[in-house]
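User: Study the fold:
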Amino acid sequence: MTKLLRSGKVKDVYEINENELEFIFSDRISVFDKIIPSKIPYKGETLARTSAYWFDLIKQKGIASDFIRLTSPNTMRVKRVDVIKDYSKINTATKNYLIPLEVIVRYFVYGSLLDRVKQGTVKPEQLGFPAGHEIKAAEPLPEPFFEVTTKLEETDRNLTKEEALKISGLTLKEYNELKEQCLKIDKEINARVGKRGLIHVDGKKEFAFDKDRKLMVIDTFGTADEDRFWDAREYEQGRYVERSKEFVRQYYRNSGYHEKLYSARKTGKPEPDIPPLPDDMVKKASETYISLFEDMTGQKFR
């Protein structure tokens, strides 16, 4: 009998035995750490099947992961690791645990990075541009921009390398290995989607150590939830057309909700409830998830 361990923003996690878990990917959708009160038809299935596609690919490249197999179109069997929320219980000898970091690599100035550039908290030279360079929205970065946030806290916060090392139990060598793996995976993603009319804008990955303290990629990556993709032909014409969950984020930015939410967070006031998506946005979101799955993998959804 399987046991529900936790229900997250996107997936439900079930215990299979002491060594394996099952992820059931729901049709829930979240932005800015808020679950939207709208379901997106077939979203869960596209995430599970896209993730399986990438996990099979990185296995061929010699990169370890927690992925075992798909047990249904929206259900993934994975290796089980410990989730340790108390950072003081993690050190450089700890094994078989989720590394409490989210790792982001960006290739264009967009999203929250663009926000920080406009606010002046990220300078052009930090991104590889000459000092004083006037950065434009959607501009390609001279080099990949690597950053790390928290994973197990209520809301994500950006970390310095020193902070990341302190809370994660990683050595500097392991931290650099994690970074190298991200870049190696993204090299494959960028090459594959580039042949299919897509641009990989940025992406998030998560990692764990196995029982021998060997690094492995976990959860999901390269999907419409974890990564941003643009239509390459549109980008060449000076437009950046979203092929990921980002267009849903932009809907809430344009509606004014994002500003109200982050103002409340900044001032310590109660956070406003996130409103549901209109029916036309739900339909568009479902179509976006399905079409991106087909374009990335070359597989038919049905």
Summary: The chain has a mean pLDDT of 95. The longest helix spans residues 172-194. The two ends are 31 Å apart (CA to CA). DSSP finds eight helices and 14 strands in the chain.
